């Protein structure tokens, strides 16, 4: 076992143990009683249900993570990566097609292994707690559409990356960085109009009091209201949400139909004001810039380690190849990715506070607070998450912390 294997094994172990500890402390924090702030929204039965939901989801997450880790280690130390490489090389497809077949096979195998967990999560856990609205037909269609998009969009991009590192020497990482950056930007523009409608229906918000209030608010904050859409989120789940996506003329704010059903007009405007706050504070562009920079660093480091014999020896490979190098480097890069992920979670929580402040100062505080309370109840959110769990996993601040901060603004 060489230094590369030690680093990767240590990272896998530390990541699993850190998340296990976070889960343990998070479950311990459920012993607290209902916070007074939510006494007007929750009853004891609903609060107990939210705690049971957190427990079930947490334990299921631990089981899933442990299974994935065991499968990876068994496949690794049984020489699975080298065996699969030898099998696919025997097909004599050519360099790029061999790489696509190798990585595609691994991704397909991972998807098949995760399918029982996904089915259980959707049709047992979510069903038990009253969230699931997905039919088996919709579930299967989602899988097929996701696979098709992966092949049509991800396949050519991966082929390009393999080609750059196969046929270009010194500046391959720059070409790959440029290709991925261009791909990401294009997806941001086309996804709202062409990709997202493959999975959900997006209908323009109909004329009426709500749209008039939204238009009035948008004019007040000087936001060009290209599109506010109602998404049929109830097609899959009874949970509620809203989000902002896209750029330029293709940018849109989507409100789940379940959100509209369960909230007052003022609360909906407050939620929309929060989403506009993300745009006004340039959070989307900042995240995009950070992501692009991170991708560039990753590809540069990939170019440094891609031809390191030790990286392939760590996985018992008999031959060096670009496509296996991509996978192994991804595992070697995991420590950096862990640190960046935590940093991005911290930054995301900061952005959420800023968007809350924008919404509460340009519109009204009370509707925003009431919307957060109702969302936490409708989604059975954990009202008392442990700080360590929040630090590792939360992209949004805990709802009680958000409410207290809004009141101080």
From TrEMBL:
Coiled coil: none annotated. The active site is at residues 275, 356. GO terms for molecular function: metal ion binding; metalloendopeptidase activity. Its cofactor is Zn(2+). InterPro entries: CAXX_Prtase_1, Peptidase_M48, Peptidase_M48_N. CDD domains: M48A_Zmpste24p_like (cd07343). Keywords: Endoplasmic reticulum, Hydrolase, Membrane, Metal-binding, Metalloprotease, Protease, Transmembrane, Transmembrane helix, Zinc. It comes from the Bacteria. Belongs to the peptidase M48 family. This is STE24 endopeptidase. It comes from Fodinibius salinus.
């Amino acid at each position: 076992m060489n230094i590369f294997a030690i680093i990767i094994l240590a990272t896998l172990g530390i990541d699993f143990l850190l998340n296990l500890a976070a889960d343990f402390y998070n479950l311990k924090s459920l012993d607290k009683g209902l916070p007074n702030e939510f006494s007007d929204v929750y009853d004891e039965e609903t609060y107990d249900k939210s705690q049971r939901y957190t427990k079930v989801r947490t334990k299921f997450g631990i089981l899933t993570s442990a299974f994935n880790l065991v499968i990876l280690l068994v496949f690794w130390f049984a020489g699975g990566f080298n065996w699969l490489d030898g099998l696919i090389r025997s097909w004599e497809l050519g360099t790029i097609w061999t790489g696509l077949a190798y990585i595609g096979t691994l991704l397909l195998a991972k998807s098949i292994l995760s399918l029982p967990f996904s089915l259980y999560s959707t049709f047992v856990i979510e069903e038990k707690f009253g969230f699931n609205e997905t039919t088996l037909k919709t579930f299967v269609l989602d899988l097929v559409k996701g696979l098709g998009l992966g092949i049509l969009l991800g396949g050519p991009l991966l082929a390009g990356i393999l080609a750059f590192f196969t046929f270009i020497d010194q500046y391959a990482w720059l070409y790959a960085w440029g290709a991925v950056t261009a791909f990401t930007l294009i997806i941001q523009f086309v996804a709202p109009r062409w990709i997202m409608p493959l999975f959900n229906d997006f209908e323009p918000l109909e004329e009426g009091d709500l749209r008039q209030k939204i238009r009035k608010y948008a004019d007040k904050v000087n936001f060009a209201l290209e599109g506010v859409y109602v998404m049929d989120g109830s097609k899959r789940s009874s949970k509620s949400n809203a989000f902002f996506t896209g750029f330029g003329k293709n940018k849109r704010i989507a409100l789940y139909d379940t959100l509209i059903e369960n909230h007052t007009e003022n609360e909906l405007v407050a939620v929309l004001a929060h989403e506009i706050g993300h745009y006004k504070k340039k959070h989307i562009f900042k995240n995009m810039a950070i992501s692009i920079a991170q991708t560039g660093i990753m590809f540069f480091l990939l170019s440094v380690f891609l031809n390191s014999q030790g990286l392939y020896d760590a996985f018992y490979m008999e031959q060096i190849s670009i496509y296996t190098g991509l996978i192994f480097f991804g595992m070697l890069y995991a420590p950096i990715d862990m640190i960046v992920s935590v940093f991005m979670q911290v930054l995301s929580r900061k952005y959420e506070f800023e968007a809350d402040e924008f919404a509460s100062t340009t519109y009204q505080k009370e509707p925003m607070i009431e919307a957060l309370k109702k969302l936490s109840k409708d989604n059975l959110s954990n009202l008392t998450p442990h700080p360590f769990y929040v630090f590792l996993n939360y992209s949004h601040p805990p709802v009680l912390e958000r409410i207290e901060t809004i009141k101080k603004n």
